[in-house]
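Whiteboard transcription, Tuesday session. T.W. wrote the C-alpha cells on the left side:
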C-alpha cells in the first residue's frame, strides 16, 4: 500500500490553533515579514494591539486605529519549510504530497467557515495584473462577512484579504469593525500595509 502524505489535511486541522504565540513588537513583526518575503508599513493612526489566543485562526500581529473602530490582524505562512518536504516527496514514488502553492485555496475556504460558524460567503478574486502591481503577489482576493466565532469576539463585521506568492508565502489579513457603512472606508488605511518584496 502506498504511503500517502496528506499534508493539506494536516495543515487544515491545525489552521485554527494558536500555539501560544508571544506578542511581537513591531520590529519583531517586521523581521518575521522580511524572513517570509514581505514588507510591513504601519498605517498612520494605528498602534499595536495584543494578540488573543483563539481556536479559529492563529495570527501573529494586530493593530488598531485611534478610536478603536478598525482592528487589523495579520496571519503569515511561509512556504519555504514545506517546499523542501514537497521536493523530497517528488523523489519518492510511494508518497504523494499536495503542491504547497495550492494549499492557500483550501485555507481561504476553511477561513470563511471558521469566521462565520460554518456559513459560506463568496470569496472574490483580485484581477491578476492589479494584485501583481499593488502587492507583488501571484494571487489575491477578499471576502466580507459577519463574524460568528471566538476570533471575531467584540466585532460584528469582518473582511479578510488573502495574498499568495508562489514558493514564498501565504497571507491572510483580517479587517474587523462594527459599522458596515464605514467598514470599507476604514480598512483603506491598512489595505496596502503588507506587500511582497
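and on the right, the sequence the group agreed on:
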Amino acid at each position: 500500500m502506498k504511503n500517502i502524505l496528506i499534508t493539506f489535511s494536516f495543515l487544515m486541522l491545525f489552521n485554527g490553533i494558536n500555539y501560544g504565540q508571544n506578542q511581537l513588537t513591531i520590529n519583531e513583526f517586521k523581521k518575521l515579514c522580511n524572513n517570509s518575503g514581505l514588507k510591513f508599513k504601519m498605517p498612520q493612526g494605528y498602534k499595536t494591539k495584543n494578540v488573543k489566543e483563539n481556536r479559529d485562526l492563529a495570527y501573529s500581529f494586530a493593530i488598531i486605529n485611534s478610536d478603536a473602530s478598525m482592528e487589523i490582524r495579520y496571519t503569515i505562512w511561509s512556504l519555504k519549510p514545506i517546499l523542501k518536504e514537497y521536493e523530497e516527496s517528488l523523489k519518492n514514488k510511494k508518497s504523494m504530497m499536495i503542491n504547497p502553492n495550492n494549499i492557500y485555496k483550501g485555507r481561504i475556504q476553511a477561513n470563511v467557515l471558521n469566521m462565520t460558524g460554518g456559513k459560506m460567503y463568496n470569496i472574490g478574486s483580485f484581477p491578476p495584473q492589479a494584485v501583481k502591481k499593488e502587492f507583488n503577489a501571484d494571487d489575491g482576493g477578499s471576502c466580507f462577512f459577519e463574524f460568528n466565532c471566538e476570533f471575531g469576539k467584540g466585532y460584528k463585521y469582518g473582511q479578510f484579504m488573502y495574498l499568495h506568492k508562489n514558493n514564498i508565502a501565504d497571507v491572510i489579513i483580517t479587517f474587523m469593525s462594527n459599522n458596515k457603512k464605514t467598514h470599507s472606508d476604514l480598512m483603506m488605511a491598512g489595505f496596502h500595509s503588507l506587500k511582497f518584496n
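Someone added at the bottom: The mean pLDDT is 87.
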